[in-house]
Protein 1
Amino acid sequence: MKKEFKSMFVIGNVVCLLLFNACGGKDSSKSSNKVKAVNDNASTLSLVSGNYTADSESSSVLWECGWLGGNSHNGDVYLEEGLLSIKDNNNLTGSFLVDMTTIDCHDEKNIGTKNKIIGHLKSDDFFDVKNYQKAKLEIISSKNIGGNEFLFKGNLTIKGKTNSVQMKGNVQKSNRGYSADINLVFDRSKYDVRYRSAAFFSDLGDRIISDDVFLNVKIKLNKALS
């Protein structure tokens, strides 16, 4: 890869700093016990059954990623549409479609460099957007794990390949339905995103791009009219 691409987007760790902060210090055990007590006492969120549609303009799919060496970039991609169904047993299922042609990079301010990053992401080195314009996230089951927190299981489809994923998310009531904040990690090598992946190449040295991808999906859901 040319030097001007050295700082380009690299599929690696998305939203990792925000999602995986750890606390330390001599009082950490006490703090942990307090948090556990709060979670144990939190009442389970009761959801209203029905069908819900995603408000694309109020929703977002965020990414942050970097080289194993530490450099990182961040951006977003447009949530084109989404449908969610809530059953009487508080189980959520849904399907969400992402427009891969809208991949954007936020942290790079130089327009020329930014366009190179985006162009490379869309190439067949990464997501081959010319042939695979859509990505899909499905939720096939959910479990309330305390208060407003849920554990979701589902499928993620990228570049025509589908693999199972597990996600954690927070669900809150809103004026017209619910808002959900979901975090997930997927292995890009399972979707044939090969560029500088240690899963495919053994001679990369310090040029390895992590196979783990972290995503933060924020969705505004409005109850469908009967």
Protein 2
Amino acid sequence: MMRRSLLVGAFLSLVALVAAPPAARAQDAASFINNLGVQAIQVLGPSVPQATRLARFRELFSDDFDLRGISQFVLGPYWRSANPQQQQEFLRLFHEYISETYATRLAQYAGEPFRVTGTRQENGDTVVTSQIIRRGGSPVQVDWHLTGGPGSWRITDAYVAGVSMRVTQRDEFLSIISRNGGRLDGLLAMLRQRVAAR
């Protein structure tokens, strides 16, 4: 009886999600990004030690970003040609690398006011627009691309001042692979070195 009740409850939750009007889904996505912005930017102010900020970004990337999807995108055809061991190593190294990169990059905005400015649908994604309000400077526009739905949102890309996070990483990584004769091992070696140096 209890199992049946759980199944019925799960089914009703799924129906509620599918039936949720677009405005409700957009509001939920906006709330998700607002909470993320508060945690990642406002809370992690200049007084927060770098090690604490990095640990928090590792957690955010694990919980809120589609790390596997982003990894497949940035490697392009090399993801498909990689063996399972290389894929797993890349996922681990990329997680560390991207956490450090964005913990450092967003540190310049730490403690600044953050606000969500709108939502829109784009190519199947929900895009939440936001601004980081810099004191004495122009606001920085950040557009967050989301997949999923209420309770399961995942970030697939973030455009900071019009620049795509994942496209930037793809261009950088594919250039490194190209310089190493088209071998993924060259990129993995570079990532190991950079992660070990931090």
